[in-house]
Amino acid sequence: MASLDSMSKDTLAGYLGSTDKKFGEAKLKARKHIENHPGFVAFSGGKDSMVALHLALQTDPNIPVCFYDSGVEFPENIAYIHHIANVYNLNLEIIEAKPSVLDILRKEAYFDHKRMPVELKVSLIDAKITIPSEKAHEKYGKGRIWGLRSEESKGRSMLLNSRNGEFLSAKGEYVTAPIWNWSSSQVFAYLSKHNIPENPLYEKMRALREKKKGLRVGSIIDGSNL
């Protein structure tokens, strides 16, 4: 263990008893899920999904890892995904959105209000998340580990809090969010304690004075409230 003087605040937080206990509980939750529900890890490149992925790899180093490429990803995030795949020798599959989010926005005339939109049968949320997720489940099984946290939004809080981070979807998918009750600070503490490479987008966001809770890796075109 490094000296106290040489450790960052986040690393030091990772050695606190209460935080370390949460780390152990999350690791156990991920292990039990993998043992009971064959499937994959949904990996976005964000800090939360990176922690969820790291927890899963400790049980199954070869677990399938799926990244949904919306077609409007930050280049830094794509580079980070491939870097992590090399560092941890991931069993990675990149599932492209078809049509891409950009194609949908073009055809629905988001960028040209003088043109009549083309009616599409697929929505943004379906193209970006639902359809790629269905493809992953069809190939790898009904289980999914996801880096969701209840702190992020009211919707996620309602979904996760009453179920302790585990739920069965309407389509029969077994979803586990092992870090569902973690704070953003605890996520960064875990990353720091385990020397996990950080997505370079976070440093750029910090330069823009984003607070920890606002550090989100998403699409170039904001994916909020799809």
Low-confidence stretches: 1-7
Query: Rg to the nearest angstrom?
Result: 18 Å
Give, in spatial order, the strands making up the sheet with the most strands: 3-2-1-4-6-5
Structural class designation: alpha/beta
Task: Compute the number of helices.
Answer: 9
Strand content: 5-15%
Kindly, what is the distance between the CA atoms of the first and last residues, rounded to a whole number of angstroms?
44 Å
| Overall shape | globular
**Estimated helix fraction:** 40-55%
Main pleated-sheet profile:
6 strands, mixed
β-strand number: 6
Oligomer: single chain
Average the pLDDT over all residues and give the rounded result: 85
Give the topology string: H per helix, E per strand: HHEHEHEHHEHEEHH
Characterise this structure.
This protein is an alpha/beta fold and 226 residues long. It contains 9 helices and 6 strands. The longest helix is centred in the first third of the chain and has 20 residues. The radius of gyration is 18 Å and the shape is globular. The relative contact order is 0.20.
Main attributes?
6 strands; 226 residues; six-stranded mixed β-sheet; 11% strand; alpha/beta
Give a brief outline of the structure.
With 226 residues, the protein is of the alpha/beta class.
Helices, strands, pairings?
Elements: H1 9-14, H2 17-36, E1 39-42, H3 47-57, E2 64-69, H4 75-87, E3 91-96, H5 101-107, H6 124-140, E4 143-145, H7 154-161, E5 166-168, E6 174-176, H8 184-193, H9 200-207
Parallel strand pairs: 1-2, 1-4, 2-3, 4-6
Antiparallel strand pairs: 5-6
Helix pairs in contact: 3-8
